[in-house]
Specification:
2 domains; about 350 residues; alpha/beta; Rossmann fold; 6-stranded parallel beta sheet; 7-stranded parallel beta sheet; about 15% strand
Length: about 350
C-alpha cells in the first residue's frame, strides 16, 4: 500500500508523539508499504526509512500552512501514485485531493474551551478543521470522547465512517533512567492542566497535615514567575519545584522516575500521561474529565470535586494504592501499544484504498 502521510503540522506536543511513533512502528511491522511523509522544511520529526518530502511553509505560518497544504498534498499524492492520504490533523488541504483521505481528530478544545485560544486561532481552526471534516472519506479519532464531541458539534460528520484508534504508551519503556524514586509530577504547559489548582491543593494539604509528596511541575515556561510567587506565598518552597520546558531526554528521565502523576486536566482529547504513568507503575490522579476517565479504565484516583481540597484528597488516595492495584493499572496500560495503533490505522486506510488490494 502507498500512503501519503500529511504531517506538516506534526512538530510539537501530542500530534508529534502520535506521528513519530506511528511512523516508527509502521516501518517495523509493514516494511512492504511505501509511505511518503510530508513535513515542513527543516523539521526535526524523524521519518525513519519512509520517503521524506520537505515543503517550505510561508510566513505567517498560521496562514501559510493551509495554503501550502492545499497546493501540495493533491499534487504529491498523484505524483507518488498514492492509494490513500492520511492527514494527521483535520487542518489539511482545503480541497479534495482526488484520492481517498482519512483525517485524524484529536480534540475540539478550540470550540469547547474557546477562552484557551486567541480569536484568530479559533477562526483559523474553525475554517480549516471544518474543511478537513468535509473532505474526509474516513475519520480516525484518538478517543471516544473526541468522536462524541465531533458528532455533537458537527452533526454532518455522522455521515462519514469513523473509528476510534487509541494512542500507544509503550514508548515510555524505552525512555532512559530508573523507574520510580522521584518526585510526583504535574504539568503547566497549557491552561487546562490547572497548575494554580495544583499549587492550591498542596497548600490545602499542608494546612490539613496530609503529608503530600514533593512535587515538580513541568512546563511552567513564561508562567513561572507568577507560579513561583504563589508557591512562596503558600509556604511550599522546597516542596513544590517549578521546572521549565525540558529537553526530551531530561523530560523522559523525570517522567520515568515519577512517584506519582498528578493530572487534574479539565479538558483532554486523550490524556497520554495517564497511561504513560500507569505503564511505568506510578499511581495516577485525574479529574472527572471524559477522556481521562475513558483511558484510565477505573485505575486512577479521581477528584470528587474540582477544588484544591478535592485534589489533595485524591492525591492521598493515590498515595495509598497498593502493589496489586498498581499492577492491575499497569496491565491495563499495556493494552495501549503503538503496534495496535498502527495496525488498526493501516486496516482503516486499506479499507478506503481499493487500489492497494489490486497492487
Amino acid at each position: 500500500m502507498r500512503v501519503l502521510v500529511e504531517a506538516i503540522s506534526a512538530e510539537f506536543g501530542g500530534i508529534r508523539t502520535y506521528v513519530e511513533n506511528l511512523l516508527r512502528v509502521w516501518h517495523q511491522v509493514h516494511p512492504e508499504d511505501d509511505l511518503l511523509v510530508v513535513v515542513p522544511a527543516g523539521s526535526t520529526l524523524p521519518t525513519y526509512d519512509h520517503t521524506r518530502h520537505e515543503v517550505h511553509v510561508p510566513h505567517p505560518e498560521v496562514l501559510g500552512r493551509p495554503i501550502i497544504q492545499t497546493l501540495t498534498v493533491a499534487r504529491l499524492a498523484k505524483r507518488f501514485n498514492a492509494d490513500v492520504v492520511l492527514a494527521t490533523l483535520p487542518a489539511t488541504s482545503l480541497v479534495r485531493t482526488g484520492i481517498p483521505t482519512a483525517v485524524v481528530v484529536y480534540d475540539l478544545r478550540h470550540e469547547l474551551r474557546p477562552d484557551h485560544f486567541t480569536r484568530r486561532r479559533r477562526l483559523l481552526r474553525a475554517v480549516s478543521y471544518s474543511r478537513g471534516y468535509a473532505i474526509a472519506d474516513r475519520i480516525i479519532s484518538i478517543s471516544q470522547r473526541s468522536l462524541d464531541d465531533l458528532h455533537r458539534l458537527h452533526p454532518r460528520t455522522r455521515r462519514t465512517p469513523a473509528s476510534v484508534v487509541p494512542l500507544g504508551a509503550d514508548h515510555v519503556l524505552d525512555w532512559p533512567g530508573s523507574v520510580g524514586g522521584g518526585q510526583a509530577i504535574a504539568f503547566a504547559h497549557q491552561v487546562n492542566k490547572n497548575p494554580d489548582r495544583i499549587v492550591d491543593a498542596w497548600a490545602d494539604g499542608r494546612r490539613r497535615g496530609l503529608g503530600l509528596p514533593d512535587l515538580t511541575i513541568l512546563g511552567t515556561g513564561g508562567d513561572r514567575g507568577r507560579l513561583a510567587a504563589r508557591v512562596a506565598a503558600a509556604g511550599l518552597t522546597g516542596q513544590v519545584t517549578l521546572a521549565p520546558f525540558l529537553p526530551d531526554e531530561d523530560f523522559q528521565q523525570v517522567m520515568r522516575a515519577a512517584s506519582m502523576i498528578v493530572f487534574p486536566s479539565d479538558f483532554e482529547g486523550f490524556g497520554l500521561p495517564v497511561i504513560e504513568g500507569m505503564l511505568l507503575g506510578a499511581p495516577v490522579v485525574i479529574g472527572p474529565e471524559p477522556a481521562c476517565l475513558e483511558v484510565a479504565g477505573g485505575f486512577a484516583s479521581v477528584l470528587d470535586e474540582w477544588t484544591p481540597a478535592g485534589l489533595a484528597d485524591a492525591v492521598v488516595r493515590a498515595r495509598d494504592f497498593d502493589a496489586a492495584h498498581l499492577e492491575r493499572a499497569r496491565a491495563h496500560a499495556e493494552e495501549f501499544t503503538w503496534r495496535r495503533c498502527a495496525e488498526h490505522t493501516r486496516s482503516i486506510l486499506a479499507g478506503i484504498a481499493p487500489a492497494a488490494d489490486r497492487r
